[in-house]
Queue: 2 jobs
Job 1
Amino acid sequence: MKKGKRKGKVRYPNDKAAGVAIMLSKRVQGKVQDFGSEGERVCYVRLKGPVTSIFIIAVYIPHRGRVAPCQDDTN
């Protein structure tokens, strides 16, 4: 179930400079219990831990003065 205002939809589909990801090794990939995102700025993964689940959350928050790379400069 997608929650939140954007329901997991990308806000700026043409802005290749905006986005966030979590990279996992092949060993850790086998421990993934759940994963998802809230648009292009927040993503998470829940891993099976030795005692309890481990949540990893990645958040991208651009600063107000972001000028490079701009949307038009990225492909």
Note: The longest strand covers residues 32-38.
Job 2
Amino acid sequence: MNFLSLDDLPNKIAIFPLTGAVLFPKTQLPLNIFEPRYIRMLNDSLATKHKLIGMIQSNSDQGKSLKKVGCVGRITSYNETDDQRYLITLNGIVRFEIDSELNSTTPYRQVTANYENYITDLKPEDVANIDRKKLLSLIKRYLENKNLLADWDIIQQTDTEQLINYSGVLVPFTPEEKQLLLEAKTIMGRCRALEALYQSYIFDASTDTSTQVH
């Protein structure tokens, strides 16, 4: 199903609050669903024409309050395991802000979503002014300093928008850092925030090494 305008999106969405898991537009996020309330949410979502779930991070107060911005994803694949879990994949569609939380009888939470500030998520992003060479260099240095294994050939072949967004999904940044990337209004703003994060981690790693040497 293609979402071409805000009119294609429902105002009411079920949400899956999960700290540390961030979905970006045009990315995929695999999830392991096992809590009964979220299995119910998944079943209810699959019964709709949209098949949408809102991913959003909780704040640090035991999950009661939520971050300002989340991202709606469409369920594009799901498999049920023998122990009654669901393995699903969400495709990121558009970011949203919560207008209000609904008083719902369902075991999972539902909200009214406002997409107005993120309508550009439904369109191709302009990455012409992004320094791809610099970004790749920072990613490589970060991976080396963190001793993280990655397929560098695949990274080099990934288009720039996906390279930026999947950094927010896959790199083990803190929940607050992931949220910072998610809330960047444009791909250029997200790239600048991402570069700053990479540079800070690279600097910290080099400082630690220098301290150990001396």
Note: The longest strand covers residues 86-101.
